[in-house]
Design brief:
Layout (H helix, E strand, L loop, with lengths): L4 H4 L8 H7 L6 E9 L7 H19 L3 E8 L4 H9 L5 H18 L6 E4 L3 H16 L3 E11 L4 E3 L18 E10 L1 H13 L7 H13 L4 E2 L1 E3 L8 E2 L2 E6 L1 H11 L8 E7 L3 H14 L6 E5 L2 E3 L2 E2 L10 H5 L4 H8 L9 E2 L2 H26 L2 E3 L5 H16 L3 H22 L7 H25 L1 H10 L2 E2 L2 E3 L33 H4 L6 H5 L3 E11 L7 E6 L7 E5 L7 H4 L3 E5 L5 E3 L2 E3 L2 E2 L1 E3 L5 E3 L14
Parallel strand pairs: 1-2, 1-11, 2-3, 11-12, 13-15
Antiparallel strand pairs: 4-5, 4-6, 6-7, 8-10, 9-10, 13-14, 16-18, 17-18, 19-20, 19-22, 20-21, 22-25, 23-24, 26-27
Helix pairs in contact: 4-5, 6-9, 7-10, 8-10, 12-13, 13-15, 13-16, 14-15, 14-16, 15-16, 16-17
The chain binds ligand ME8.
Ligand ME8 binds next to strand 1, helix 3, helix 9 and strand 11.
């Protein structure tokens, strides 16, 4: 498929490794798509749900390309951490505990309409039998041996850590907890036998879809022990798959977990596999798993690495107590707003900030005010007409549908183009004002390109928002080229925001820059006294630089008239403002915000901004004659 000139103006054609990867699967019998299997001890939260969203998006892409696929997700139910929690919570045995928890996870996935085709549980007897067969095979092949290992163990990671994974006090960098020194007689898998093949695979460029993680994987190989400890003595824990050749040991939970991808989905030589993983578990998927697959003479997967969802610039996780749950998604607009917030906001591999108010904003801006509003405007007055196939707007929808996966580009761009088409349709409606047209036939003629474009946009929309796309498709039935509209359609109800869930701007960490949108603040009132507690002052920016390792933050140094009293600020403007343009400018800052320790340093205030229709932030500049330090009143 070659893009028409029409669409070329929309699409900066280039390579997206994720969707280019999809092409190589065309000869496969089936594609196994996986998310990580999750430790059930945590509440399912938006980070876990993100990986399911990506996996479902891939599944729909494969379907569109005519590939058979199976989506595997589930719970990682063995290991010390799970056994410990079961004990702490007073369960008779870990099995009872994981039965209860995995049911909760399954229900959550179902509620979000994100159930996988196969919900794996590592305590499933079929899985356990498969794992033992694999272990027997590898043992008989000479790929497993016994030895003693000494290292620093993090129970939350369920892993021995390398020096690069700990700080100087041997605290785990992810869980911020002290590791335990351990020395154990264990069984080892000979990763070293396959490591050259693994390195070649990583270097091939067709294994890890996001290039920068390939280099990370190679660095991890250099820092890691040459073989992998794959067993735990039963004196430490009995909660695992017993090794078939030594009943005094159970299998290391990570090997158990990795094998769950194929134990019931049964990977055969003609199948393909794609794993959606967070960047925290790269080591296991980019090094140990391919080594195991090489040892088993099975096909190698592709890996799509997603970044982290952050809260206050920290990874969201149960152990840090800063999570947003599935209920937060559902009560703040639902899954389509969340999809827009994740897939539409950053390419795979990059981190993104999320708060209740950013969830609300995404839902309102894309779902309610964007797609929902357009569909409502058209379906209110369109009844029936022939689709003008040669109309520019209709052709753009058709081209987007046909061309998209053939050429391969980022899903974030794809969603961006859908939005651009929706905006063009909206503008056309506003400019042509069909509601003013008295002649009913002419009125339908004006509306037909928009209704037709929406109808042809359904396949593209269904990749991201299947339920909304189906509702549009059903509401606009087509016979030949004649399109009808059945009823006035409200796709997305307006969000009613209870006062207590409104996040005041000073508490909205994901932005740190943005006034609460008028949409979400109208229901909240404050007294004059309360307002006087808020010190918004004129400040001068003396330094402004991008924060290394952050895709969004700028680091500003400002003062309110006393150059000796410099405040350090962070602001999520990196994508929108050239730092040079802020230096020497007067800005407004919230100067009495409580200091916060962030990953990158201390934050001592907040730069005030507003946003445009597309949620782009702009700093607010005071009058040039405003005195430094003066209060906004
Ligand atoms: O690691 N942002 O399970 P787990 C984005 N059982 N994604 C996040 C996230 C966040 N803040 N927090 C978690 C395990 N995730 C093992 C996996 S697979 C054979 C075994 C996602 O419950 C992300 O995909 O700790 C991460 O890799 C996964 O959840 C870890 O889930």
């Amino acid at each position: 498929m070659v893009f028409s000139a029409n669409l070329r103006s929309y699409l900066p054609l280039g390579g997206d490794r994720a969707s280019q990867g999809i092409h190589t699967f065309m000869t496969s019998e089936k594609v196994i798509i996986t998310t990580p299997i999750f430790y059930p001890t945590a509440e399912p939260h938006v980070g876990h749900i993100y990986s399911l969203i990506v996996a479902h998006l891939l599944k729909r892409s494969f379907h569109k390309k005519g590939n058979k696929s199976i989506l595997v997700s589930g719970c990682d139910e063995h290991g010390e951490k799970v056994a410990q929690k079961a004990l702490e919570q007073g369960f008779k045995n870990p099995q009872e505990y994981v039965d209860k928890l995995s049911e909760k996870w399954q229900n959550t996935f179902q509620k979000l309409d994100l159930s996988p085709d196969l919900f794996m549980r590592t305590t499933d007897p079929v899985h356990i039998q498969f794992v033992q067969d694999v272990l027997t095979h590898l043992y008989e092949k000479g790929d497993i041996y016994a030895s003693t290992f000494e290292g620093d163990y993090c129970v939350d990671c369920e892993a021995f850590l390398t020096s690069t994974e700990m700080d100087s006090d041997k605290n785990c960098l992810i869980h911020k907890k002290k590791t335990e020194p351990r020395s154990e007689e264990n069984y080892y898998f000979k990763v070293s036998k396959y490591i050259d093949k693994v390195k070649d695979l990583i270097k091939s460029g067709s294994f890890i879809m996001e290039e920068r993680f390939a280099q990370d994987a190679l660095n991890i190989i250099e820092a890691s022990p040459k073989d992998l400890s794959i067993s735990r003595p039963i004196s430490r824990t009995t909660w695992g798959v017993p090794l078939p050749f030594d009943r005094n040991h159970v299998l290391y939970v990570w090997v158990d977990g990795l094998l769950s991808y194929i134990s019931k989905a049964s990977l055969s030589k003609n199948d393909a596999m794609v794993h959606v993983i967070g960047k925290d578990i790269l080591k296991f998927h980019a090094i140990y798993w391919p080594a195991i697959l090489f040892a088993l003479d099975l096909p190698q997967p592709k890996i799509i690495v997603t970044g982290w969802i952050l809260n206050r610039e920290e990874k969201m996780s149960k152990s840090l107590g800063n999570i947003l749950s599935s209920e937060d998604i559902l009560s703040n607009g639902g899954i389509d707003g969340f999809i827009h917030h994740t897939i539409g906001q950053v390419p795979f591999g990059e981190d993104l900030d999320m708060t209740i108010s950013s969830l609300q904003d995404k839902y309102q801006s894309f779902c309610v005010n964007g797609l929902g509003n357009l569909v409502s405007r058209v379906s209110k007055i369109f009844t029936e007409h022939t689709i003008p196939l040669d109309h520019d707007l209709v052709k753009k929808s058709l081209d987007l549908n046909d061309g998209i996966l053939e050429n391969g580009f980022l899903y974030i761009d794809y969603l961006g183009y859908i939005q651009k088409i929706l905006r063009d349709l909206d503008k056309y409606l506003t400019d042509s004002a069909p509601w003013k047209q008295k002649d009913p036939i002419l009125k339908q003629e004006i509306l037909a390109p928009v209704a037709g474009a929406l109808k042809f946009l359904v396949p593209s929309l269904s990749l991201f928002f299947p339920a909304a796309a189906k509702a549009i498709d059903d509401n606009f039935p087509k016979t030949g080229n004649t399109l009808r509209c059945l009823q006035h359609l409200t796709l997305y109800p307006k969000l009613i925001i209870p006062t207590e869930t409104v996040t005041a701007p000073s508490q909205d960490p994901s932005k740190g820059i943005k006034a609460a949108s008028p949409k979400s603040s109208t229901s909240q009132t404050i007294t004059l006294d309360e307002f006087q507690k808020i010190h918004i002052r004129v400040a001068l920016v003396t330094e402004c630089t991008p924060v290394p390792d952050s895709h969004s933050l700028l680091n500003l140094k400002v003062h309110c008239g006393d150059p000796e009293d410099i405040k350090n600020l962070f602001s999520g403007l990196q994508k929108y403002v050239d730092p040079k343009d802020l230096i020497g400018k007067k800005v407004f800052i919230l100067s009495n915000l409580k200091e916060r320790k962030m990953r990158f340093g201390i934050s001592q205030g907040m730069l005030l901004c507003t946003v445009d229709k597309e949620d782009r932030p702009y700093p607010v500049f005071p009058h040039p004659d405003s005195e430094l330090g003066s209060l906004l009143s």
